[in-house]
Design brief:
The protein has 603 residues and is α+β, with helices and mostly antiparallel strands. The chain is built from 16 helices and 30 strands. α2 packs antiparallel against α5 and α15 runs antiparallel to α16. The radius of gyration is 24 Å and the shape is globular. It binds oxalic acid (OXD) and manganese (II) ion (MN). Oxalic acid binds next to α7.
Length: 603
């Protein structure tokens, strides 16, 4: 694609970046299948991509990243707002001028020997008034092909840009210039950890990423734009950019409601978004699996769009049992990163639902034999990239530019104790309180965190909020105050991850979570029996059907108020969590905490 006719500020910026990074050539991306195929062939020829067996996995490819570049790097992720206070206590901050100075030094000549790609993309259906246009400049063809799937790329985006010149500039380099005659030789290019920077300049709405080619560090439309920068825009413009899946749920009478749900990384958002209900007659459809942009409509209701166009899902653990719709989504036209390769050219990962078929090549590229292996064949954070359109569970309206009206918001995390299977907030502020205390057991989605410990992850936005988290809480409170109270979504706190004292799961999860969704649905239409409890509304006895294998005693434990556990929770929120936010913590949240304590003490 030739450089487009304008807008000038885009062309000037592209020239400026090329002058700094000095690529061999500059290529504008048009988002076509020809472009995708050409880049894939180029990467196959370079030994970076492996074309999978076309009979088993048509038009699909495997990539193996460097072992040092397998996940988001939160320690190297910066919110470089003008002041440290604006970034708040939960973000890494560097003075923006200083950070730009450092990064310009790194960017200087960093694309030598490579092609610089310019990707015009839209987050959200092209032309939707909730959508935003971004441009990603990158020297990674892997990023280009992933962006083809994850966003809407190409000329139609430039057409919108020609009318309305607003765009979010995002710059990415793998940070591995090539000397004259040097090639990657099949090695994943990236920079050492201390040279990686995932930087956000919120006031300028700008993103600079350097040194990593992987996922959320490099596909800048996703976490960087659609969450960190969009959360700042949402605060300023009065809407919400959230780490939430969106699903539609239809009852046997054909009534449909939409639910948004925030869970920390690797808590099964993709599984919930694509759930196959075990409750007869109920249907769940997917609108999005990771990010929701939500705005109040003229009618006072909250409408959500999925800004993405594909899934970048965690592969291990995905199977026909846990998520048949995801398995069907990756049957073809998919990119796999850091999964294992079978000897007949297909993919395999841990808990895919069948034994490894003979010898494999693991994600390091080494031979792997189930009988002798002491390490997993796929990296625990191995991913698939698949077009949303390939998912059989997509709601027909998933690309509706107007979005879908949200009736319920769920918060949850991996909590082996205390938090019951489900409880409902008494009102909006109580729901915001629930969101603010979300915590989860750490898994492997981020490189630099210790697995097995619980960390507070308010609204599942800890790694993704582009400004002061205390102000973010205020924003949620304020939106609730301004809204028509009768039209606000109901808010729920769920926990699929309760364990017994000896470490066994109390709840089977997956499709059985439809029992909880059914109760949520019923509560939203004024049905669904509930009892008042110190922590909020709880399902009345028998209101949630008991799955096979869950005893009455288990059910009682799942739906009990663990008074001692909650008092410990309150202590930890009061002493360790809330103080971080200082005077930015809304008084409404301290009041909710005190009310909860009083109610528990009276119970
Ligand atoms: C993701 C994440 O990749 O949350 O979606 O880490
Ligand atoms: Mn996510």
């Amino acid at each position: 694609m030739n450089p487009p006719a304008g807008p000038k500020k885009l062309l000037d910026w592209v020239d400026e970046v090329a002058a700094l990074t000095r690529p061999d050539t500059v290529q504008w991306c048009d988002g076509t299948t020809e472009e995708y195929d050409r880049l894939m062939q180029l990467m196959v020829d370079d030994g970076i991509a492996i074309r999978l067996n076309g009979k088993k996995r048509p038009n699909s490819f495997l990539f193996r990243s460097s072992p040092s570049d397998v996940a988001r790097v939160e320690k190297r992720t910066y919110i470089a707002s003008r002041t440290k206070e604006a970034a708040g206590p939960t973000n890494n901050w560097i003075d923006p001028d200083q950070l730009k100075e450092t990064m310009k030094g790194l960017y200087d000549g960093c694309m030598r020997g490579r092609t610089m790609y310019v990707i015009p993309f839209s987050m959200g259906p092209v032309g939707s008034n909730i959508a935003k246009i971004g441009i990603e400049i990158t020297d990674s063809p892997y990023v280009v092909v992933n962006m083809h799937i994850m966003t809407r790329v190409g000329q139609k985006v430039l057409d919108v840009l020609a009318r309305d010149e607003e765009f979010i500039p995002t710059l990415h380099s793998v940070g591995k210039p090539l000397a004259e005659g040097e090639a990657d030789n099949g090695q994943w290019p990236c920079a050492p950890i201390e040279e990686k920077y995932i930087s956000h300049f919120p006031e300028e709405r700008m993103i600079w990423s350097y040194g990593s080619g992987y996922g959320g560090n490099a596909l800048l439309g996703k976490k960087c734009l659609a969450l960190r920068i969009a959360s700042v825009a949402a605060r300023d413009e009065g809407w919400l950019a959230e780490h939430m899946l969106i699903l539609g749920i239809t009852n046997p009478e054909g009534v449909k409601k939409y639910v948004a749900a925030a869970f920390p990384s690797a808590c099964g958002k993709t599984n919930l978004a694509m759930l196959v209900p075990t409750v007869p007659g109920w249907k769940v459809e997917t609108v999005g699996d990771d990010i929701a942009w939500m705005k109040f409509g003229q009618d006072g209701r909250l409408y959500a769009i999925n800004p993405e166009a594909g899934f970048f899902g965690v592969a291990p653990g995905t199977s026909m049992d846990s998520n048949p719709n995801a398995m069907k989504s990756v049957e073809r036209d998919s990119i796999f990163t850091n999964v294992a390769l079978t000897d007949d050219g297909d993919i395999w990962w841990e808990e895919i639902g069948y034994d490894a078929p003979g010898k494999l090549i693991d994600w390091h590229g080494n031979e792997w034999d189930a009988a002798t292996a002491d390490k997993p064949a796929a990296h625990p954070n191995a991913r698939f990239t698949a077009p949303a359109a390939s998912c059989p569970a997509m709601a027909p309206e998933w690309e509706d530019p107007a979005g879908v009206p949200i009736s319920a918001i769920l918060f949850g995390g991996r909590r082996p104790g205390t938090i019951p299977l489900v409880h409902q907030a008494r009102n909006w502020n109580h729901g915001v309180f629930m969101g603010s205390i979300v915590g989860s057991e750490i898994t492997s989605a981020a490189l630099d965190l210790k697995a097995g410990t619980i960390r507070r992850d308010p609204f599942a936005m800890l790694p993704f909020c582009g400004y002061n988290m205390g102000e973010y809480f205020q924003h949620w409170i304020k939106l609730g105050q301004k809204a028509d109270q009768s039209k606000l979504p109901e808010i729920f706190f769920v926990n699929w991850f309760r364990k017994t004292a000896d470490g066994k799961w109390l709840w089977p999860g997956y499709g059985e979570n439809s029992r909880v969704l059914k109760w949520v649905f019923e509560r939203c239409i004024g049905e669904g029996e509930a009892t008042d409890s110190p922590i909020g509304w709880m399902p009345a006895q028998g209101a949630i059907g008991r799955p096979e294998g869950v005893s009455e005693q288990d059910m009682a434990e799942l739906l009990a108020v663990d008074r001692e556990g909650w008092l410990r929770e309150i202590k930890s929120v009061r002493e360790e969590h809330y103080p971080k936010f200082g005077d930015k913590l809304p008084a409404e949240l301290s009041a909710e905490l005190n009310t909860l304590e009083q109610r528990l003490n009276q119970s």
